[in-house]
Each structure stands twice: as structure tokens, then as C-alpha cells.
Design brief:
- The structure is a homodimer.
- The first copy, chain A, is of the alpha/beta class.
- Chain A folds into two domains: 2-182, Alpha-Beta Barrel (TIM Barrel), CATH 3.20.20.70; 198-309, Alpha-Beta Barrel (nicotinate phosphoribosyltransferase).
- Helices cover 39% and strands 16% of the residues of chain A.
- Chain A is built from twelve helices and 14 strands.
- Chain A has a six-stranded parallel β-sheet with strand order 2-1-6-5-4-3. Chain A has a four-stranded mixed β-sheet with strand order 11-9-10-14. Chain A has a two-stranded antiparallel ribbon with strand order 7-8.
- In chain A, α1 packs across α2 (29-41) and α5 (75-85) packs across α6 (99-115).
- The longest helix of chain A has 17 residues, at 99-115.
- Chain A is elongated, with a radius of gyration of 25 Å.
- The interface between A and B is large, with 50 and 51 residues.
């Protein structure tokens, strides 16, 4: 679910950098780590969760906290201290008190930082109308001699907010996505489950109202359009060969793994390749045509036979 | 969030037994354990997660799986094998193929089980119109000489479904609640965060748009109505004494715990006591009057002073 939601964000971000900021509201620390991994797999640039970076070799991104600013008696000192502590990563959080006033403070501070060899890498906006603040701050930075300082936006973002900000042309270079993605807020669970399809060589299935399954061992054949996009899938019994690419392959037999573990970077490349093969409709947030999955005659026949035996 | 959602379920369940069935769709194994603990704390009777039962000393409940039925060539044999394996907990899942037909099979099997000293403890409904199935199955069990066999319902339940089933008088004795509660599906996160309120003796606060906080060390005084219900809270500075019960107390100072760890059973009792003190409106699913939280003059004055210093 998290990877799907992250993939949707990547698809509409049009190459802009996305970063996972979701740890603090994940459903526990483990869920936060898994979300960082899933979002990187789906194409995010990295995560603010340091342990996930270490555990899965994911690039780590981050900026200062509001508490860092508040712990200082004024913002300029906070910015200076942060830049000195993180000279290669001077991403300054400017919304603690007043975003535009803070942007002017950054401009005023920049020359003395430059003398010490430190460039302001980016500023972070985290509240209010992000598009409006981004335009005003971009102008302040440009006019203040900081055209290379980027703008990072955060604050209750999801794929719909990203689409709105990007479509509106807001001058934002990177987006940090947190709670909504890490908790998969609008679809926090996937209503599916493993179900027994065969036992001791005998195909079987559930027929519970609204929860019926198809019986027996299966194969899924994917059909592509002439330009290589996914067209439709056919679900059939495992020995009924159909045109197209067979998708299912055994990964374990008699307790032994049959294929090597794939690295996260390989999975990430595969996800990107597969996403590129989706139709334009499936790649948009407003999918108007669900993917076509067909059930073969042989599978329908098997279900009839199985039902007669129970 | 999970505890709040579980508490809402408990409040509208009117004493009917609730069980956590949510592990399989939790956001990771850790989240599943924490959800089992949170729902028990809020008043659930127990959980189907065995490890949570062992880790937190929570009663464990469960029934057979659909795969257990499917692994047998007929339902009656599956019911018999389960009852023999779990003679004290013969809760039979009857919706795998046809709920009412399975109820008749349970009735037909019951005498031979009784001869072996086994009583059918309950049947579980897991699909379709639960209220309708419960009425039909209740009649089949009663007419079949099993008036003491209870009915347990499960299947995408949440507090609103519980309210509907209970208000409709469905003859269901226990409810197993899963995905919607464990993932807090309609409110999967709580939009709050720790924020710095004082640093080195200096009160401070954030003023970010829509995210401003109140500065300084605080105390909260709770006012009660004449019948002991919570009436309203006053948030004030820590040394501004107000009428009512002070709610905040230090739990740690200089790295040392000041109060002993409370047992889960104590927390559960406390939760029940506190829930009983909520107004009828707050105890309903459709709260028409949000709880009244007031900010004292002294806190407002402090905010003004703090703002002048930044």
C-alpha cells in the first residue's frame, strides 16, 4: 500500500525530488522503517529516517527542526549554527515564526556563511499556503543573490497536494511527504488475504458471500499493447497455456528458495520499469479505466467441478 | 488512536464481548501487537494474536480458519476435527460455503460431540448480511437444541457497523473487530507532535500558520459537573493555580522515573473509569458538542511576552 501510494506520488511529481518524512506518525517504529523502504523502492530519493538509511542503504535527507530554532533566542543565530554544523547540508527551516521575514534573514546571513565556504543549499517551507510562500520566498532568494538555493516543501502533503502544487507551477524543487503516505491515509489497508486454493492435490475454494475465490493452482498471462504497455491479464489454471507473458513463478519449494534475493536497488529499477509500462490512465491519480483482468474458461470450468464436490 | 477507536467500540457495544482480530492487516507485526494491547486497555475482552497474549498477559480468543474447512473434503468433518482438537473452545466457522446449511450441519453433529463431552461453544459468521444470517442461524441453533451455542460475528466491522447491528437487535453475542480498528481506518493518524515549550528556562513557542503552540510549562485543570462528569478543562501556566483537578504530573526528572510503571490491568481499569466520566455526547459516535478546552489569561499573557522577544 505504501509503495503504491509512493509510486502515485512519483508518477505525478514529474522528476521533482520526493523524500520520506513519515517516521513520527507511522504505526510504530517498524512500520516507519518499512515505509521508508517501500517509498524508496517506488522511486523516492531518500528518507529522513536515519536507521532506515543504515538498514537498507537508502540515501538520508533532512533539515533542522522547529525546536532547534526555538532553542535559540533568534532565528539568524539558529540558521548560522545549523549551517556551521552541517556545512554540506545547510537546509534551513524558515516557517517557525514568519516565513518571508525568515527568508530575508537567510539572505542577510548568506554572505558571512559564504566567507566561511558554506552555501545555503535550500530553505524549507512547512506551513501555510505553500505555493504562495514558495513564490514570495523564491523572489526574496533570487533578489538576495541566492538563485541556487532550492526550496523544499513539507507539511501534510499527499499525492493530490503534490499534483495541485506542481500543476500550479509553484517554484518548489523538492517535497517531503510524511504522515499521509506512511500511514497510507486514504487507504490504510488492502482488503486481501491468503486463501487456500489446493490441499493434498485437491483444488478447493471459499464461496462466502462477497468473498468467493477461484480454486486451484494458477498462472497469470499478461498481454501488452503494440507500444509495450500492459493491456490486460488472463488468470487461468496453471497448466492452461495462454498467449502473453506468464507472471507467476515459484520462489520456494520444499522449504528451499529457488531464486536469489533481489537487492533493493534492483527492485527499485524493476518498479520504475513496470510503472513505465502502465497505461496513461493507470498512471494518473484519477484512473477512469480499471485494469482489465479476465478469468479463463478453464478456471471457470474448474470452479464448477470443485463446487460439485463440496 | 487505536485505543480511542476501541473505546468508541466498547462504549456502543453495551457490554457485548469485543475481540481484536486485526493482526493480519496491521502496519507490520509490531503495530499488530500494539493494537492488541491498546484495544485490551480500552476494554476489549481479548485478542486473536497469541504473541500479544503472551507478551502483555491478554486473554486469547480465536476460531478456526477458512483454510481448515477447505483442507477437509466436507464441512462436517472439519467441524468434528476442530471440536476434538479444541474441546473447550469449539467455535465453528460456518460461512465457508453456505452459512445456514453449515448451521444445520452443526446441529446434526452436536449429539455425537455431546456424547464425547464436547459442547458447541459458538459459531462464527464472517460474510454477507450479518444481522440476517444471525437471525436465521439463531433459529436453526435454538430449534436444533443448541440454545446455549453463541454467535460470534466478524468481517470488516467497525464501531459504526457494531452500532447498526446492536441497534437492529441482531442476536450476536460477540464481535471480532479487525482491519478497521487495527489500522484506525477512518483516522489513521493523529495530527499532533511534541513541540519545544521552554529551553534553558526561557519559554518559547512556534507561530507557524495553523500550527502555533502555547508557550511555557503548563498545568491543565479539569472541572467536573455535579454528577462527576468531565465539564471543561483550563490550560494555564504551571504556577497559576485554578479550581479543579490538576491533570499533569511529572513522570521523570533528571533521567529518573518518579512514579512506578502501571500494569496493563490498572491502565484498563483507569480507562474504564475515565470513559464513564465523559458526557453522553462524547460517549456517542456522533458527538455534537466538542469538549470545551479554555486557555487561561495567564497563558495568553505569557504568549504575548514571548512573542515580543523573538
Amino acid at each position: 500500500m505504501i509503495a503504491s501510494k509512493a509510486a502515485r506520488s512519483v508518477l505525478i511529481a514529474g522528476g521533482k525530488q520526493l523524500i520520506d518524512f513519515g517516521l513520527r506518525r507511522a504505526h510504530g517504529a517498524e512500520a516507519g522503517l518499512l515505509a521508508a523502504r517501500a517509498s524508496y523502492l517506488a522511486g523516492f530519493a531518500g528518507t529522513s529516517t536515519v536507521l532506515a538509511g543504515m538498514a537498507y542503504d537508502i540515501p538520508i535527507y533532512g533539515t533542522m527542526a522547529h525546536s532547534f530554532v526555538q532553542a535559540h533566542t533568534n532565528e539568524t543565530t539558529a540558521f548560522e549554527h545549523f549551517a556551521l554544523a552541517q556545512p554540506e547540508n545547510a537546509v534551513l527551516l524558515i516557517d517557525t515564526y514568519d516565513t518571508e521575514r525568515a527568508a530575508h534573514k537567510v539572505v542577510a546571513l548568506a554572505p558571512s556563511l559564504k566567507q566561511q565556504g558554506i552555501a545555503v543549499k535550500a530553505v524549507r517551507l512547512d506551513s501555510g499556503d505553500l505555493a504562495d510562500h514558495a513564490r514570495k520566498v523564491r523572489r526574496i532568494l533570487d533578489e538576495g543573490g541566492l538563485p541556487h538555493a532550492q526550496i523544499l516543501a513539507s507539511g501534510n502533503l499527499d499525492e493530490y497536494q503534490l499534483q495541485r502544487l506542481i500543476a500550479g507551477g509553484a517554484p518548489i524543487d523538492s517535497f517531503a511527504v510524511g504522515t499521509a503516505m506512511t500511514t497510507s491515509a486514504d487507504a490504510p489497508s488492502l482488503d486481501c488475504a491468503y486463501k487456500l486454493q489446493e490441499y493434498a492435490g485437491r483444488p478447493c475454494r471459499k464461496r462466502s458471500e462477497g468473498k468467493a475465490t477461484w480454486p486451484g493452482r494458477k498462472q497469470v498471462y499478461r498481454q501488452y499493447t503494440h507500444d509495450g504497455r500492459c493491456d490486460y491479464d488472463v488468470v487461468t489454471t496453471h497448466n492452461d497455456h495462454q498467449p502473453g507473458e506468464p507472471l507467476l513463478q515459484p520462489v520456494m519449494t520444499e522449504g528451499r528458495r529457488l531464486v536469489p534475493v533481489q537487492k533493493l536497488t534492483e527492485l527499485r529499477e524493476r518498479a520504475a520499469t513496470q510503472l513505465a509500462r502502465l497505461s496513461d490512465s493507470l498512471r494518473s491519480l484519477e484512473c477512469d479505466r480499471p485494469y482489465d483482468v479476465r478469468i479463463s474458461h478453464s478456471l471457470q470450468d474448474l470452479a464448477r467441478v470443485v463446487d460439485q464436490c463440496v
